[in-house]
Design a protein that fits this description.
Chain lengths: 98, 629
């Protein structure tokens, strides 16, 4: 039973990672990050359940809190970039190239 | 009274400080008078402090502690007050005062007038530190400080390239000597564990091996040869004449250059254990004496004659102290300070009058225009020529007599000294005749005039001293000998032969040499220029060699300075620029190139960084799986 949850989590994580690597829109990439975080959460919960251990749930709660804080800051950054440049494409933000 | 002895150093030092910071506002001539007052006050203090020595009787040498500097090695600021340092202090401050006074007139109109007196006062303080030091550490401080002052004053007119070069040369050549002196001090410390005179000299007999004594003596000789311009390190002194004439009189005739003689005399107990080192001092002195005297014969620059003469007379002093006739050496040091300072100041007076002309071929007939200078310089000339009863006769004769009495190798040196005396009389009389007699050979527009009283007064005082100073130590009454004896306690002193017969014989011989020299110069040079040119041509190539100072400067230039310069250029332009800078720049270049080729990796696109991150993650994951978690 746990295997399926793990496979689902891996698939979700892979979708998120691919989104990060392939998409240009900052907002979409942000959603992909969330997807990856939640894939990890799913892994933690299923492993906790399988091992009959509460640590998995505790760690998930921490991830949720941190992700919420991250969303607040990340969205604020994206909004301010959009206001300045009229675009949310990350390829437009390549000033730091060598 | 010795409680206040520190004032002797402090007064000129304070003068130097005041002039350094406020000299600009004091201007001319007040800053000159201030400096003169400072050193004259130092003279008064040292004279008063020396009264017990003059009264005779049993007077102990005193060590007066001022403050602790390096007590672990016995190098504190403490003053040695015995007849030797008292005599040196009196000569330095006495002759120094007269030269300061003279300089007020001589430096008139110089835009750095106050700065000149700052340096003069600083020099006086340094020289007094040297002679009053109670240990070798403090002596070395003074030793280096006088070298610095010499550098500053030789290069006083530093806008002249020759003056700047001469100052540098004086400093560098002295470094060579100082290097030997410093090693000598280390040997002293290694042997005795202290630098204090009293600590060393009371243990000389028991703890000093002949080998160590010889090493110390020879190393001190290296230092003394540098400071006192002896062969082979004398070359800086003739060039040092680029400095203002009062500097030549004070530093390069009367005081600083005698520091080497003083050090040998002060270290008499060490030299007593090292006959080889002592002999080396005498031989170096003899070589220097005759070498420099022969060069002086053919010089045409009025100051260069005096410069080589000083080198030669310092050689005499070295012969004296080398033959352990310390009193004779110091006696000659004192009389020489008087008549040589007088000669330099007289030359300064002449140069001043001739609008900075120094070539004696362009002088002549000046006795009518400047009678005081002519008369005083005439007295000094006779004094240095060794004509009785002037000062130089007594001191020179005592050295020669001591050499004769010592016998053996020293008897050969006596002959050298006698020949040198003949040469000395000749070149000094030649100078006097060329400058003051014959017909004027002045350049157009030169109108010589007698110098102002502030300049002639020191000349007159020094002329009187050049006449009477010899009487302090004559076979009739060895006053100076008794005066100095406490300073050379436990050292056997060499004396001239006893008895009137021997004295008259030796004195007769040296007087004959002196008179012959003067007479020859008179006959050769009191004639029209064509006549004395013919006389000079009679010497042939020898005269050319003398005129060019045996080409020693050229020799040093090709054998030492040239290779040294080439070595420095190799080090600077090949090793440093190519090797060391090359390595440093090469490392920078390497990182620049690596960075240049790697900068393409930084695209600025988040997805590229993300791909790298993911790839890394994948690698780590695979690795973890492969090793079975």
């Amino acid at each position: 039973m746990t295997d399926w949850y793990m496979i689902l989590a891996a698939v979700l994580f892979l979708i998120g990672a691919m989104g990060i690597l392939l998409r240009r829109n900052a907002l979409v990439m942000f959603m992909c990050v969330e997807l990856m975080l939640n894939a990890v959460n799913l892994t933690l919960l299923s492993a906790g359940r399988a091992l009959n251990d509460l640590d998995g749930q505790v760690a998930t709660l921490f991830v949720l809190v941190v992700a919420a804080a991250e969303v607040v800051i990340g969205l604020a950054i994206i909004v301010s970039i959009f206001r300045q440049r009229d675009t949310a494409s990350v390829d437009a933000l390549s000033e730091l190239k060598g | 009274m010795t409680d206040l002895l520190w004032l002797v150093i402090a007064l000129p030092l304070a003068g130097a400080f005041v002039l350094h910071f406020f000299g600009r506002y004091l201007r001319e001539p007040l800053s000159g008078w201030l400096a003169t007052g400072a050193i004259a006050a130092a003279f008064v203090v040292s004279a008063v402090a020396a009264v017990p020595f003059f009264q005779g009787g049993d007077v102990e040498a005193e060590q007066i502690a001022i403050w602790e500097w390096m007590p672990a090695i016995g190098a504190n600021f403490e003053l040695q007050w015995d007849p030797l340092s008292a005599l040196m202090a009196l000569v330095v401050t006495g002759v120094g005062s007269l030269i300061h006074l003279f300089a007020i007139g001589y430096m008139h109109g110089d835009e750095r007038f106050h700065r000149f007196f700052t340096y003069l006062n600083l020099f006086a303080a340094s020289m007094l530190t040297l002679v009053l030091a109670g240990n070798y550490g403090m002596l070395f401080v003074g030793w280096e400080l006088v070298g610095l002052c010499s550098y500053l004053l030789v290069g006083f007119w530093y806008t002249r390239p020759t003056a700047a070069a001469a100052a540098k040369k004086a400093f560098v050549v002295n470094r060579i000597g100082d290097f030997g002196f410093l090693i000598g001090l280390m040997v002293v410390f290694a042997t005795f564990g202290t630098m204090s005179y009293t600590g060393i000299f009371e243990r000389v007999g028991s703890e000093l091996t002949t080998g160590a004594a010889t090493a110390i003596g020879l190393l001190f000789l290296v230092g003394a040869a540098g400071k006192s311009a002896q062969v082979p390190l004398y070359v800086w002194l003739p060039d040092a004449m680029e400095g203002p004439t009062p500097v030549s009189a004070l530093i390069h005739a009367a005081t600083m250059v005698t520091a080497g003689v003083y050090v040998v005399a002060r270290s008499a107990p060490i030299y007593a254990e090292a006959p080889i080192a002592s002999g080396a001092v005498a031989v170096i002195g003899a070589i220097t004496a005759i070498w420099a005297a022969s060069i002086a014969i053919a010089q045409s620059d009025i100051k260069r004659v005096l410069a080589y003469s000083t080198v030669s007379q310092l050689g005499y002093m070295f012969m004296g102290v080398g033959a352990t006739a310390y009193v004779a050496g110091v006696f000659h040091l004192m009389t020489h300070a008087f008549f040589k300072a007088l000669l330099f100041l007289g030359a300064g007076s002449v140069i001043h009058a001739m609008s900075d002309e120094q070539d004696m071929h362009k002088m002549g007939g000046l006795r009518r225009r400047m009678p005081v200078t002519a008369a005083t310089m005439g007295i000094a000339t006779l004094a240095i020529a060794g004509i009785p009863p002037l000062a130089g006769f007594w001191s020179k004769d005592e050295i020669l007599g001591s050499l004769f009495e010592r016998g053996g190798m020293y008897a050969a040196l006596w002959i050298v000294g006698l020949v040198t005396a003949l040469m000395t009389a000749f070149y000094m009389a030649r100078q006097w005749v060329l400058v003051f007699w014959g017909e004027p050979r002045w350049e157009e527009g030169v109108e010589p005039h007698e110098s102002p009283r502030v300049m002639t007064l020191p000349l007159i005082v020094l002329a009187v001293l050049s006449i009477v100073a010899g009487f302090v130590n004559t076979p009739l009454r060895f006053t100076l000998e008794h005066f100095l004896e406490p300073a050379f306690e436990g050292v056997s002193l060499q004396h001239p032969p006893e008895g009137w017969g021997m004295f008259l014989l030796l004195a007769g011989l040296s007087t004959l040499a002196g008179v012959a020299g003067v007479a020859a110069a008179w006959l050769a040079y009191n004639r029209p220029p064509q006549a004395w040119r013919r006389f000079q041509d009679g010497f042939g190539r020898l005269w050319t060699a003398w005129e060019n100072a045996y080409w020693v400067d050229d020799l040093y230039a090709t054998t030492i300075v040239g290779p040294g310069r080439r070595g420095a250029e190799l080090a600077a332009f090949q090793v440093d620029a190519g090797g060391i800078d090359g390595a440093v720049n090469g490392v920078g270049w390497l990182f620049q190139r690596v960075g240049q080729s790697l900068r393409g990796l930084q695209t600025g696109y988040v997805r590229n960084y993300g791909a790298g991150f993911a790839a890394g993650l994948l690698v780590v994951a695979i690795w973890l799986v492969a090793r079975g978690i």
